[in-house]
Amino acid sequence: MTLAPARPTGPENPGPGPERPGPENPGPGSGPGPARPAPVLSVRDLRVSFPSEQGPVQAVRGVDFDLLPGRTLGIVGESGSGKSATALALMGLLPPAAHLEGRILLGGRDLAAMDDTRLARIRGKDIGMVFQDPMSALTPVLSVGRLLSQALRVHQDLSRKDAWEQAVQLLDLVGIPDPRERAKAFPHEFSGGMRQRVVIALAIANKPSVLVADEPTTALDVTVQAQILEVLRLAQRESGAALVLITHDLGVVAGHADDVAVMYAGRIVEHAGVDELFARPTMPYTARLLAAVPTAGSGVQRPLLPIAGEPPSPVALPAGCAFAPRCAVARDVCRTTEPDLTAPAGRPGRVACHRAQEIADGTLDPAGPAGSAVALTPDRAAARRTPGEVVLRVEDLVKTFPVTRGALLKRRTGTLHAVNGVGFEVRAGETLALVGESGSGKTTTLREVLRLRAPEGGRIEVAGTDVATLRSAAQVRELRSEVQIVLQDPTDALDPRLTVFDLLAEPLRAAGADRTAVRSRIPRLLDLVGLDRAVGDRFPAALSGGQRQRVGIARALAREPRLLVLDEPLSALDVSVQAEIVNLLVRLKRELALAYLVVAHDLAVVRYFSDRIAVMYLGHIVESGATEEIFARPRHPYTRALLSAVPLPDPQRERRRERIVLRGEQPSAARLPAGCVFVDRCPLHREADESVRTRCRTERPSTVGAPDGSDHRYACHAL
Predict the structure, then answer these.
(1) Inter-residue contact 715 to 620 (CB < 8 Å)
(2) Positive or negative CA dihedral for 447, 448, 454, 459?
(3) What is the rounded distance in angstroms from the CA atom of residue 663 to the CA atom of residue 683?
(4) In terms of C-beta density within 10 A (0-12 exposed, 13-18 middle, 19 or more buried), how is residue 614 classed?
(5) What pLDDT is recorded for position 524?
(6) Domains in the chain, number
């Protein structure tokens, strides 16, 4: 078996996968039509709770849905909405302390009533799961071939030889190169994307009728994410399984789901076909969730509308509709009576909202009045009119690491070229985003900037000072105040033993500020990042993810830096919280004339709040320029592949646009090609004439400017 290559999708060439809802294939609640096939999985009144010191945590409250053969149900919602608890309940993987009620019917059998022994005979055979973290699903001391062989032999009467042959075929099916040899390798010898392919192979090994994928692409680059989603779709088609796809990425849902269930506070609040839900959401929560999503597919910079407030605690849910405290169109009845999940007249699908009929009739906007949410859009035109001074200048930056072998007596066997000749400038009031796959050198570049030491090669200048000229610790400390960092995970960045006040006071005290100065500065910092001053007395554990990230930003701003380095500042946040933080960063940049150097993998977010982009691959910048220029007219084939892999939260456009799926894995930076670093994966190289192909193999391309004279620059022989 071999992995079928990806192909463009469009009206004449529809993408793979099950049929979409339509007259002959109705979605949920679509009304009269041909009889639907019997569901392979039916969930009825599913309830999951966990004990806690404050009382029972109601994680899942009365969830109902049917999963049809060959179709994909996407489950979306904020953290804590009950998505993962639902997935674990389906698989029978809830912890022993959890309390489960309701029915989970698979082929007429109630999984909720089974003990672990009976469930073990069903898991992996009739229902398979793709986990978020592939390493948690793979035994590190067994080769991947042996893992697959064992999964096959547990449920089938196979000899070791036959099981091994089927394991090799499964690896081939999910796109593992040289599957017979790679079957002998161990999980740690695979990249993250390759490990996820192995997990998918495990999930489909026995051709289950149901697959459950819980955030299967969360930690992956966009190019690898696109590959994994294609593999998952192919696996579903090969096995004929129905798929439950749990994700926070609405673009992934738009491109791969047939039906969508939106969860909030432990229950489904809207359930409809994917086209209907994205085109005309009926539940106010769904409408606000979609309004908070940035999109990379359009040059129109609409404002992001974050959802006000925080999700309710599952220990103390409010009376009535759980979303009422955050809803812009809530009425008194919404605060006293919880609505049932019903189908409004004239609309497909089901929704739990007292005002659903008004929304369905078009007499009420589910997102509320235009002024009900504060939203900002970047003023790039103003930034171009008033360019600030250069805050950071990097020229020909080089960073290498030794490659060693041996446990005790290490010997050097090679050199890993992490960053090679990188150069850029960042001005006051400007955001430069470094984008690219993992291993491209983005984070190493950030670390070299933050070291404030002479680099291995090249030059780094911060606030007009060449870091190579710093001779004393006092000079370094003085320059350190000009550049600060906001880390990816605010939980890891904040000392859990300190209150917010002490966390913000720490950098001020380290700089020698007295008690009076500290006490006057901290309230202003909290105001600056939009936090109530009462938060100062709390510990990080008592804050939401968005609040913790705001504290991290306030801490970085404590000493009034000119440059903020942001390392994936949004990847650990829900989409609604992400919109709040994006809007905050845009406002702070404008008000304080800050310069931002950002590393991010979400190109939709990058498009929203960056002014310029530098695309990195294997330690080299292969293309750079103004954000809108890069998105509108990408030149380098790697940039084109990156942009084509970004999911769009629009089912029609997402399923019809052409994709460029890169072949193979990014090569090791310890063995760089002699010519272009992208040559082994470049689609243009495969189509070029022999003279260009020879140059690509033997000569490193120089960076050239676009013909229009703009600052758009790229390095490619084939253009």
Answers:
(1) yes
(2) negative
(3) 9
(4) buried
(5) 95
(6) 3
Q: State the amino acid at position 690 in one-letter form.
A: E
What is the DSSP code string of 432-492?
EEEE--TTSSHHHHHHHHHH-S--SEEEEEETTEEGGG--SHHHHHHHHTTEEEE-S-HHH
* Residue 402: C-alpha distances to residues 250, 421, 572 (Å): 41, 18, 32
Please give the C-alpha separations between residue 446 and each of 451, 599, 622, 645, in angstroms, as whole numbers: 9, 8, 17, 25
Given a contact cutoff of 8 angstroms between Cβ atoms, the answer to whether 46 and 64 are in contact is: yes
pTM (2 d.p.)? 0.84
Report the relative pairing of strands 72-76 and 259-264 from DSSP bridges.
parallel
Question: What element of type H or E holds 379?
Answer: none
**Tell me, what's the pLDDT at 139?**
92
Say which residues have a Cβ less than 8 Å from residue 477's Cβ, sequence separation at least 6. none
How far CA 434 is from CA of 61, 371, 602, 613, 615, in Å, comes to: 42, 34, 11, 6, 6
Which amino acid type is present at position 225? Q
> Could you tell me the CA-to-CA distances from 255 to 84, 287, 298, 406, 663 in Å, in that order?
21, 18, 16, 47, 21
Q: What is the spatial distance between Cα 509 and Cα 511, in angstroms, rounded to a whole number? A: 5
CATH code of residue 63 = 3.40.50.300
Residue 204's region, left for phi above 0, alpha for psi from -120 to 50, else beta, is: alpha
CA distance 424 to 708: 20
Going edge to edge, which strands form the sheet with 210-214? Answer: 127-130, 210-214, 242-246, 72-76, 259-264, 267-273, 350-351
- Strand boundaries in 143-298, DSSP class E: 210-214, 242-246, 259-264, 267-273
**Structural domain of 326:** 283-294+302-375
Please measure the distance between the N-terminal and C-terminal CA atoms of the chain and give it in whole angstroms: 36
- Whether residue 448 is found in the same domain as residue 577: yes
Residues 454 and 350 in one domain: no
Range list of H helices, 260-376:
274-279, 284-291, 356-361
Q: Report the C-alpha gap between 422 and 271 in whole angstroms.
A: 48
Please count the residues of the chain: 719
Tell the residue number behind the tokens 């999980």, with chain if given.
187
- The verdict on residue 505 lying in a domain is no
Q: Please state, in angstroms and rounded to a whole number, the distance separating the CA atoms of residues 427 and 406.
A: 45
**Same domain for 201 and 166?**
yes
Measured from the Cβ of residue 474, the count of other Cβ atoms closer than 10 Å reads 9
Answer for the pair 320, 337: CB distance below 8 angstroms, yes or no. Answer: yes
Q: Is residue 502 part of a domain?
A: no
Mean pLDDT by 10 residues, the chain (719 residues): 38 39 41 68 95 89 94 92 92 92 93 92 92 86 94 93 94 89 91 87 92 84 83 85 90 92 95 94 92 70 76 88 93 95 89 94 80 46 59 95 80 89 94 91 92 93 93 89 88 89 94 92 94 92 87 94 91 81 90 93 84 94 94 93 88 85 80 91 90 93 84 91
Q: Enter the DSSP assignment of 74.
A: E
State which of 325, 349, 375 marks the end of a domain. 375
Has residue 248 been placed in a domain?
yes
| Domain final residue pick, 356, 375, 394 | 375
Query: Element (H or E) spanning 50, and its range?
Result: strand 41-50
- CA–CA separation, 207 and 200 (whole Å): 11
Phi/psi at 22 (nearest 5 deg)?
-170, -170
